[in-house]
Design brief:
Layout lengths: L14 H17 L18 H7 L5 H17 L3 H6 L1 H14 L2 H17 L3 H21 L3 H15 L3 H20 L8 H15 L15 H11 L3 H17 L14 H14 L3 H9 L5 E5 L2 E5 L2 H14 L1
Length: 329
């Protein structure tokens, strides 16, 4: 039997034909999502979740923590994430505190903003009161050191407003702010507060005062408040400080508990004080407050929020809205 001859080899394609086949093959791979490295198209990165941002708070580099804090704040400003915040409450709170204690000035401010949002959003009383208990001594110490004072005052106002469980807790926070406000009055050698810091302190104190009914106010803590704010209104050369002082006086009169805000040995009558305040406010061009002291009726204000009309008819409403708008920036 003869051996079968091998079949001849198939004809080899030309070089031009090879190039055409390679191009066609690459097009098929791209269509199937399997392009080689030379033809790989960029794909959009998957959006990060708030969980991945929370992990960023554990990074060692401060810049990475800053980025994570800013991203979390951005998410919470667009959606509240109640369930995730409550499930990971301790991580947000204590990593935020860690950033405040160890971070740069920017990281400190971002951490204070995050903790403030946490106090506002968390719905469980035991958790939000934990925010208050943990933050109060930290913020009190920070005020004494002068670290990021404006943001500390804003955070203190928010945390106490939402986290305090009773009027005593509210007034403990108010007392911290009041001592800070008056610190530069008691020591001639101490550096005076800047106008911005003084305005922030007054506004935080007023924000907390709006949450209290007059009869709940302590009798001895706020003695001299009317004289203090009147002096600011008459003598301070910054317009924003004068506006804050005039609003403080309007809110104090609105509480109906003036006896708790007079100084010892009061010499002026209510009517005399009313006339003095009205005259000084006219001189400082604080128009809305002037109208209030003419007839003790707060000028009404209307605004639209999420398509709904909102009417403000009292100083406590106006001050609350003003403070919250300032916190959110």
């Amino acid at each position: 039997m003869t051996r079968r001859d091998k079949p001849p080899p198939p004809p080899q394609p030309s070089s031009s034909r090879k190039r055409r086949e390679r191009r066609a093959g690459r097009r098929r791979h791209v269509a199937a999502g399997e392009a080689d490295n030379s033809e790989q198209l960029p794909r959009p990165a998957a959006p990060k979740t708030i969980y991945s941002y929370l992990e960023g708070l554990y990074e060692r580099r401060g810049s990475d923590r800053e980025e994570a804090l800013a991203s979390i704040i951005g998410v919470l400003n667009s959606r509240l994430e109640h369930e995730f915040l409550e499930k990971n409450f301790a991580s947000f709170l204590y990593r935020g505190l860690n950033s405040f204690k160890k971070g740069s000035s920017k990281e400190k401010q971002l951490s204070l903003h995050l903790v403030g949002l946490l106090a506002m959003i968390i719905g469980y009383e035991d958790k939000v009161s934990e925010v208050y208990r943990e933050l109060l001594p930290v913020l009190s110490k920070a005020l004494k050191s002068g670290t990021t004072a404006v943001k500390v005052l804003d955070c203190l106002g928010i945390v106490a407003f939402f986290g305090a469980t009773n009027s005593e807790d509210i007034q403990n926070a108010m007392q911290i702010i009041w001592k800070f406000i008056n610190a530069d009055q008691s020591d001639a050698n101490e550096e005076k507060h800047s106008a911005a810091v003084l305005v922030a302190a007054i506004n935080a104190w007023l924000f907390l005062l709006t949450s209290l009914e007059g009869w709940r106010l302590r009798h001895n803590n706020w003695n001299g408040a009317i004289d203090y704010f009147s002096t600011l209104l008459l003598k301070h050369d910054d317009k924003l400080v004068c506006v804050a002082a005039s609003e403080a006086l309007a809110l104090i009169f609105e509480t109906g508990s003036l006896e708790k805000f007079w100084g010892e040995g009061r010499e002026r009558s209510y009517s005399h004080t009313q006339q003095l305040l009205r005259d000084s406010m006219v001189a400082n061009d604080v128009r809305q407050v002037v109208k209030y002291f003419e007839n003790f009726q707060c000028p009404g204000t209307s605004l639209t929020v999420n398509g709904k009309d909102l009417k403000l008819s009292s100083w406590y409403q106006k001050i609350q809205l003003q403070f919250l708008k300032g916190f959110f920036g």
